[in-house]
Design goal:
Number of domains: 2
Order of helices and strands: EHEEHEHEHEHEEHEHEHEHEHEHHH
CATH topology of the largest domain: Rossmann fold
Number of helices: 13
Low-confidence stretches: 197-202, 390-400
Number of strands: 13
Largest sheet: 7 strands, parallel
Mean pLDDT: 83
Shape: globular
Oligomer: single chain
Length: 400
């Protein structure tokens, strides 16, 4: 099948980039072995990770340099518009060369649905439609944008898409309330980074001495790296904190580290490759993620697959992860630095008589979360279910 994957990302992606951007590329690369021909829309240039995925480059590069929160939203909006315009130009040249369009943003579904009403669209929904009360947007721009994005675009996209992939149980339940038809909904966890062998190339992990707590992700405010820094200051030991990623929140995080006196214990890494990141996972004493909300935080799975004890600090419910809890994979409903410090210290030092078995942790993660090949196979079946019925209707002259 010929698939157009619409992404707003700029390639090549840093290893710390997750969420929607990483999902699009991983989906594309795992669909190729299933026999699909995949075209991926994005900015920048394709890297080695693309393999046989064909790149459809957005001709104009969108750059917003301001560190203000409003600039973050503006950049995301402009990236989506640029990707949709590129996808539109690509489809108009020869609409029949693409069988299905897979979108990773509600705006792409809405606009492409209007422009190509007969084209089957699959939509992966990455964020909750309704936030839990404790995880409401905090800034004025969040409060302004959220009703437009979720109140209008998200609901429109859910109704227009031929099939919706939800990355968590909460998202699936909320989407079903809008659609009213569970047959066009599939719960499917996102792809995790495969735990392949780490290369011998020199990487930043070789310069970082354990023990350390690792946390990975875009530093844009939703992930509360500042609280991890404050928690570190409450742990009276030599354990450090390694933050992999970049973003507009970096200056504030640096100030926070200076304020609580842990500057020398916090390491910021902007750019690492996949192998180097896997090395960091494997050498970390604890993987910790603190966040006000997540669709499905794939880095938690990646850490567990590499045998690292994992802690998720949040004030929002996440049923899928809560059902998966064990003594080395824990969801803690608190964003208080004191409780975070206590949990990290207990996990790192180990409860009396218990030493984390990395092999056991990795084995448990492999048994609990589906491998990328299984996720790709499920998407393959979704495509067949969407395109098949539409092809059957074409001879009868019925417009999809």
């Amino acid at each position: 099948m010929r698939v157009l994957m619409v992404s707003r990302a700029s390639y090549p992606l840093p290893a710390s980039q997750g969420g929607t951007d990483a999902y699009a590329l991983r989906t594309a690369t795992y669909l190729v072995p299933q026999g699909h021909q995949v075209f991926l829309v994005g900015q920048g240039q394709p890297g080695p990770a693309f393999g046989e995925v064909r790149f459809v480059r957005v001709p104009a590069r969108v750059q917003v340099t301001s560190r203000l929160r409003v600039a973050y939203f503006l950049k995301g909006f402009l990236l989506n518009i640029a990707s949709v315009l590129t996808a539109t130009k690509f489809l108009r040249k020869d609409p029949d060369r693409i069988d299905i369009v897979h979108c990773n943003s509600n705006l792409a579904v809405v606009l492409l649905g209007l422009l190509f009403p007969g084209k089957p669209l699959v939509y992966t929904m990455h964020d909750p439609l309704v936030l839990p009360q404790r995880a409401r947007p905090a800034t004025w721009i969040d409060r302004l944008i959220r009703p437009i994005n979720n109140g209008l675009f998200e609901r429109w996209a859910l109704r227009r898409a031929a099939h919706v992939i939800a990355v968590s149980s909460e998202i699936r339940t909320q989407a079903e309330q809008v659609i009213g038809d569970s047959r066009k909904l599939t719960l499917l966890y996102p792809f995790s980074r495969p735990a392949h062998a780490v290369s011998t190339d020199t990487g930043p992990s070789e310069a970082i001495e354990p023990p350390y707590v690792l946390s990975v992700g875009a530093q844009t405010g939703r992930k509360r790296f500042d609280l991890l820094i404050r928690a570190l200051a409450l742990i009276p030991s030599s354990i450090g904190l390694v933050l992999v990623g970049s973003g507009s929140d970096r200056p504030r995080l640096g100030r926070c580290a200076r304020e609580v006196g842990v500057t020398e214990r916090v390491v910021f890494l902007d750019h690492v490759n996949d192998d180097q990141l896997l090395g960091l996972y494997r050498e970390a004493s604890v993987y910790a993620l603190a966040s006000t909300r997540e669709g499905f935080p794939a880095t938690l799975i990646e850490a567990a697959l590499n045998g690292t004890p994992t802690l998720y600090f949040t004030d929002a419910a996440h049923a899928d992860l809560e059902r998966s809890q064990s003594d080395f994979f824990r969801v803690i409903h608190s964003l208080e630095p004191e409780r975070m410090a206590d949990a990290i210290n207990r996990t790192w030092a180990g409860e009396p008589g218990r030493v984390p078995d990395r092999g056991r942790i990795a084995q448990w993660a492999r048994s609990r979360f589906p491998p990328p090949e299984a996720v790709a196979g499920a998407i393959d079946r979704i495509y067949a279910g969407v395109v098949g019925p539409m092809m059957l209707r074409e001879p009868a002259g019925v417009t999809a």
